[in-house]
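Lab meeting, action items carried over

1. Structure of the two-component assembly. Owner: GW. Status: complete.
Input record:
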Amino acid sequence: MTAGTTEEPTDGKVHPPVDAPIDHRRHVSDYFRLERWELPSDGGDDRPASLGGRAPIDGHQRGPGGGLRTGGLLTNLDSLGGFASGLAALPRWIVTTSLLATVSELDHVGPLRFRADVLRLGRSSVVTALDVVDEGADDRHVAAATMTCAILDPGAMVLDFERPFSLAMPPPQPDPSPPEEFFCIEPGEGPVTRLLLEDRLRNPWGILHGGAVAMLADEAACRAAVAHSPAALGPNGVAAADAVLHYLRPVKVGPVEARCRVLGTRAGRTTVRIEIHDVGSDDRTVTLGSVTVLAV
Amino acid sequence: MTFNDYPPPEHILGDLGMEAELTTETTAKVRTRVTPFVTTADGGVRSGVLATLVDIVGGAIAARVLRPDWMATADMALQLVGPVHGPWVEARGTVARRGRTTLVIEALVVCVDEDGADTLVDGRPADPVAWASMTFSVLPAQNPSSSVQTAGELPVRWAFEGGGLDRPILEVLPVEVLDAAAGRLSVGVRPYLYNSFRAVQGGVIALLAEAAGAEALGAAHGLDGASFVITDLQIAYLALGRVGPVVTTVRVLGSGPDGRAGAVVELRDSGADDRLMTVVNVSGAPAAVLAGAAT
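Predicted assembly:
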């Protein structure tokens, strides 16, 4: 339940839409079937030391690297890290401002097990470390990340959680759609990729889920790398790995456009700078970051 | 040049000979000369040195944009993207977003000549060397009048003057390798490494993390630390390192078939109850892989 965006510049409060009829808070994380549970605090207080998570890798979510697509990995990190940060910040809540992820393995057996540890709870921000291991490969470490969240007044948002918090793994989807389809990413190629802002992609604040932004960044960077140079391609194509995402502003209207610039290709890795815009909100820049695309 | 007596006369920024310029209200550039004392085995400049450049350019912009408030670096990401042609590397920073509590700055590192013009390769500007981004936390001014004065004292152009490096930068710090395979490295805290808060400067932290990651990942590949190049740094600054020595530990992540690998580096202030100062996710590859790669 993370908002995946940074603070509003006006009054510091984020106001959920009063006419929102859908409970959006689990839809995106349900797609990746992320199970979550709160771990006991080492410090003996009621703030969470950490949160555990576990997700299978369904066939339709695997990418050219063989394992869970990095956009999916980032979505799970965003969901788990955001929730851990939010629980630490109660009675206030959080929005993600940056997600920095190092992805060292793309070929996962699965399921993947996640852990989020709050490293620092300040007056205005929370920093959380995230770790991912592949249970099916003897708990091999596959990724690590750090997430920074800004603490905000939750406004009218209801923040009532049974503690210790737990959420069972959602069931498989009867009619699974690939990530590009679920996240409403338009087919295409080249340096610009578009996402249509369907209601199901909004988070509890009513804005685009940070995981959807991550999936857009993954797809857009891969398309840009391929369009830039055939040297980016491996036998199985390309796959996104390390990612840096700064969530600058919330996405409210859409469509959402990722504009990419290839900065360089070296030793089978292409670095892509990404600027994401909310076209319907005066084309304002909502996310800035980079993605490393690997030949696989 | 010193800025409220910072940096002191003997300081790493002076020895790196950094030259800075505020180009507009929201942009700046900082450069340093490429010497053998700051390069890696593949011919590039150490990611930790480039992170130092980026830290300075970001800090210069933030000091101007946030006045009368002050700032602390919250996170930084840096990726090496292309080869270094020299003779200088220059970080060019710009504001991406000014929020109420945070400031996000983007920087591109390029090669420039003696006059500051882009280095040309085959008649056109060389590709970028690195891309970086950083988040600053805004610290409300405790004494607005003094910080206004401080910000106002910042000149348009300045240089950190020092004697220059006479040996590799890790020897100058100096970094002591306690256990290469475990990535246990140590550096003492002294004025030479201070930031303006009299704690270890953010770029030095990046350098130490880079060195620790290279030692541990190199050992995991049967190489020494100098033969493994850290190309990516993702840094979360949690607490200042004031007492020291600062000691690193490394957890190695998985590794790809081409030797590309990642690790998590933790830096702790051993003299302050082992307080966790910084977490750095690093990734890189053997120098031989990078040196043989076309661009």
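2. GW to write a short summary for the group page. Key points so far: Chain B touches chain A through 50 residues (CB under 8 Å). Residues 144-149 of chain B have pLDDT under 50 and may be disordered.
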